[in-house]
Design brief:
Blueprint: H1 14-23, H2 26-34, H3 43-49, H4 61-72, H5 74-82, E1 89-90, E2 94-101, E3 104-111, H6 117-127, H7 141-152, H8 157-169, E4 190-194, E5 199-200, H9 201-206, H10 210-225, E6 229-231, E7 239-241, E8 249-250, E9 256-258, H11 262-276, H12 279-291, H13 296-308, H14 321-335, H15 342-363, H16 371-386, H17 394-401, H18 406-432, H19 442-467, H20 473-495
Antiparallel strand pairs: 1-2, 2-3, 3-4, 5-7, 6-9, 7-8
Helix pairs in contact: 1-2, 4-5, 10-15, 10-16, 11-12, 12-13, 13-14, 14-15, 16-18, 17-19, 18-19, 19-20
Length: 498
């Protein structure tokens, strides 16, 4: 597994890819773990690992049928008889077959056997033979420990079932659809849900659909901001765009990782700071996410590293600016050599993946759009609606307002975008009609007014809460009343956005 030098004509990542393919087993799982890990590998290696070809043998159909009969009795027998011959997917952790239940096509998914400790020991002994400086960091003890945690995360269906049950009860509150378990044919060993027809993101991206990648970015941000989870095995073949009028759907989420509640808001501020270009706040929030606390010396060191690291060069490839910023921050954090929580690495991993998928869609003819930035505002609006009760506390609103965080950034960006649309519409009308004075389209005017109203209401809320406490009692009560009235109007305005 010695990685060849750059001068041998084969590229720096190809030998590593070929070795993983030949070794198979746990090495293939490790290759999946390393995919998009820009904190550990350069773009040449990530590009090569994307090309790995492997077929993971499924859990045999007879084994699944026996499990169904044992777990579900008569209903399991009916599912077993109607199961397809070939699996609909076979991943590192799961095998799923299509079957029929009450006239509906359903997914029947089971977990595969856990990796034996002896296989782990053999893998850890072999991977240490990697000696090339460019890749030797992937065999560091803390990385191997993280890989073990990542792989063990999906050994049982229990965690996956608990997450899907919660998501099913709150379907109306999410922007993205997830598998809706069928309770009477679901156990801790067998998960069943209706099959959703649709075109996978992988196919859409190859046809130049930047919109599909934007929906992926919405899913990534919503999972963190609203659901307090990160998908540790984001797969573009597991996400589909159904027929017209139906919502973007994730067919499976096998490795959900919980995000500690106190760190959700910090992560939201980190995302906002990156999108704003506020490096100092981004460094502060990133250290908080990595360590669970603020450390001034590490913040200064991280900020210095962030300013010194050059963006990873991607030859002949347009790459969205936000994804490049997250990638650089991640690489800088890795140089601090601190133990990072797995969910934080997986969040960056997913954001980097959307960047590469955006680049691929653009190269296939799609518009050059920063998908993470585009996905940000819908998530902001949904967070506002779902957390309305928090804003009854002035301290909570003040906390949200510090440093132009997620709320203000999203609203201001939307207002600017709407203003630009109106401006463009006006210019177009003047050219087409030879200078005749025509009003902008009614929908554009209405959108602009909504965006401007949101910006004004935010300013009113922040101003009254920040300076109201310094006034005398009668004036203070008046300012708080204005703040609450502005808050109510803000929720009304957000609800009107389509």
């Amino acid at each position: 597994m010695a990685v060849p030098s750059r001068g041998d004509g084969r590229g720096p990542g190809k030998k590593l890819k070929d070795s993983f393919e030949q070794l198979g087993g746990v090495y293939l799982a490790f290759a999946e773990f390393l995919l998009w890990r820009a904190d550990l590998l350069g773009v040449d290696y990530l590009t090569a690992l994307r090309q790995i070809h492997h077929t993971i043998p499924p859990v045999p159909r007879d084994t699944v049928a026996a499990l169904l009969r044992r777990e579900l009795g008569r209903k399991g027998d009916e599912l077993a008889q109607r199961m397809d011959t070939e699996p609909v997917w076979s991943t590192l952790s799961r095998t799923a077959y299509l079957s029929g239940y009450r006239g509906t096509k359903v997914v029947v998914q089971v977990a595969r056997e856990p990796v034996a400790e002896s296989d782990f020991a053999e893998f850890e002994a072999g991977i240490r033979f990697l000696g090339n400086p460019e890749v030797s960091r992937v065999s560091a003890p803390r990385i191997l420990a993280e890989f073990r945690q990542w792989l063990r995360q999906a050994e049982s269906c229990v965690t996956e079932r608990s997450y899907l049950e919660v998501l099913g009860r709150n379907k109306s509150q999410t922007l993205i659809d997830y598998p809706a378990l069928i309770p009477e044919i679901t156990t801790d060993s067998v998960l069943c849900w209706p099959w959703v027809e649709g075109e996978p993101v992988s196919s859409l991206v190859r046809r130049g659909s930047v919109e599909a990648v934007t929906q992926v970015a919405v899913a990534v941000l919503e999972q963190y901001c609203s659901l307090s989870l990160v998908d540790a095995e984001l797969d573009w073949d597991a996400m589909v765009m159904p027929a017209a009028g139906e919502r973007f759907t994730i067919r499976r989420i096998n490795r959900p990782l919980a995000v500690p509640s106190p760190l959700v808001n910090i992560g939201m501020k980190y995302v906002a700071a990156v999108l704003e270009g506020n490096a100092s706040t981004a460094a502060q929030m990133l250290v908080n996410l990595a360590l669970g606390k603020s450390t001034g010396s590490l913040e200064s060191a991280l900020l210095e590293l962030m300013s010194a690291i050059e963006p990873e060069l991607k030859v002949d490839l347009w790459f969205p600016g936000s994804a490049a910023a997250f990638e650089s921050n991640w690489r800088a954090l890795a140089r601090l050599e601190i133990v990072r929580p797995l969910y934080l690495n997986c969040l960056h991993r997913n954001l980097i993946a959307t960047g590469y998928w955006t680049a691929e869609a653009v190269s296939a003819g799609g518009a050059a759009i920063d998908t993470i930035t585009e996905a940000h505002w819908p998530v902001v609006g949904r967070v506002l609606k779902l957390n309305a009760s928090q804003f009854l506390d002035p301290a909570a609103v003040t906390e949200w307002s510090v440093g132009l965080g997620l709320l203000s950034f999203g609203a201001m960006r939307e207002a600017n975008r709407l203003a630009e649309e109106v401006r463009d519409n006006n210019l177009t009308i003047e050219v087409d009609l030879g200078g005749a004075q025509q009003a902008a389209p009614r929908s554009a005017k209405r959108s602009f007014r909504t965006g401007a109203l949101i910006a004004c209401l935010l300013i009113a809320i922040l101003a009254t809460l920040r300076w109201g406490s310094t006034l005398a009692r009668p004036a203070q009560v008046l300012m708080v009343t204005v703040a609450y009235a502005s808050l109510a109007a803000l929720f009304w305005a957000v609800a009107k956005i389509r």
